[in-house]
Every structure is written in C-alpha cells, then in structure tokens.
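agent> call fold_tool(seq_1)
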Amino acid sequence: MLQEKQAAPDFSAMNQDNQTLSLKDYAGKHHVVLYFYPKDDTPGCTIEANQFTELASEFADNDTVVIGVSKDPCDSHRAFIDKFGLKLDLLADTDGHICDEYGVWQEKEKNGIKKMGIVRSTFVINKDGTLAMATYGVSPEGHAQDVLNLIKQL
C-alpha cells in the first residue's frame, strides 16, 4: 500500500469523454485528488461523487483537480455524470492497471463471501508528484469535506 510522502504512481487513462488524462498533465500546476470507487451509480459511490461535486468550486479555488477512478468503461462514466450532473472527471481503468499501481484492488468480504474488488480509497497528490494523503477503506459520507479540509492546509 502507498504511504504519504511517497512518489505517486503515474497514471494515464481515458475519461468519460474518451480523452486521455495523465498525472503528468497536472504536474507543477495543480494538486490532484485521485479517488477510487467500486462502481458507477451505486449508493455509496453516488454519495461520494455528489459530495465532491458539491465542493467542486472550493476545490478549484484551492488549485485542486478531482478525478474519480473505477473499472467501469467510459460510456458508463458518461451516463453517471449526466444522471447526477457531476462536475469531475472519471477515469476508465478497465484493465485495472491504475488500481494495481495504487494498491486498491484487494480482497473484500461481504456477507461471508470473499472476492476481489476496489477498496474505496483516496490519494492527494501534491504539485511535485508526492502523496500528501493515502487513505484506504474510506467511508463516502463526509469524505469530500475531509479531503477539502486537508487541501486547505497544504
């Protein structure tokens, strides 16, 4: 698992508009909040995406870009954004490469059944490419505000 002050793994993937986004696109310009979530348009994932959207202007005012990542394809991301009016980019990590690099593809247990899946996790990447925050197993409710509070302290 990744830890604070470590170099953030580079990433490159297509967003909801079939445009490639990479960490290097933001180097030296913005802080990046990279958050991983299990699946588009599910209860916890919707709460988290909506709360990041509600705070979008405050993140922008603090020179921060918010990017969500799941294994869903671009068209699923586009439908999720359109349905809820989300104001963030969602990356389609369909092959799981970014999930592996960030250590979020883990064994999970629900109702006594173990299976692999994305553990809801968030990383704050400084302008120099190092991690200011690496948190695994987050709860969606209120998480966006917690991340914003951290950003304001950077």
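agent> call fold_tool(seq_2)
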Amino acid sequence: MNFRFLSPTNHGIVDYVAAIALIAAPFVLGLGSSNPMAIWISVVSGIAVIIVSAATRYRYGLFKLIPFGGHLTLDMLVATAFMLVPSLFKLEGLDAAYYYINAVVVYWVVAVTASENRQSGND
C-alpha cells in the first residue's frame, strides 16, 4: 500500500488553499486573545506560502525556481516553526491549539506527498 498518495500537482492545490486559510482563519476564529502575534504570524505565513508556491517547480508554480524537494523541506521547516510558535510567543488556548494543529497538518501533508522523481513529468 502506498502511503504517499498526494501528487505534487495536488500538493500545489493544497498549498494555495492552505495559504488562503492561513490568511483568513485568524480573523474567522478570533485569534489573538493571548497575543496579537497569533494573527499576524498566520497571515504572513499565508503570504509566504503563496510566494513559495508560485516559485516552486510544479504544475501550479509560476516561476519554477524552487525544486519540489526543496519546497517539501521548506514545508517541514514551517511545520517545525508552527510547533515552536506557541512557546516563543506565549500563546495559550485557541491561539496555541491553532498552531499545533497547523503543524500536525503540514507534517502529515509532507508525509503523504509523493516525491517528484516518482511522478510523471507533468506532476
């Protein structure tokens, strides 16, 4: 059974959806009660996801500067940063949970994404 079922193309779709969610969710969820940075770290992360996605060599990349493997490495770094954000910024409650959940989701997406060398040239 192949646990890496998410193609680079579908990963790209997930990236852009995640970027929109990172920008909008802090306002929808009312984050910022323990520290206003809970809002702005998410918004800046969402903007960064758009930039990195646009620069990645996959179907939905515009500039195709970053190899897909490098993109996955950046995703892992972001997930790790999300795990550290609650401690670094003294986040509590929903603010902290938001970053822990995002970290787990990003780790999971990377774990289930097929590497580019196992995909056809169009993915």
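agent> summarizing second result for user.
Confidence is low (pLDDT under 50) at residues 118-123. The radius of gyration is 15 Å.
agent> awaiting next instruction.
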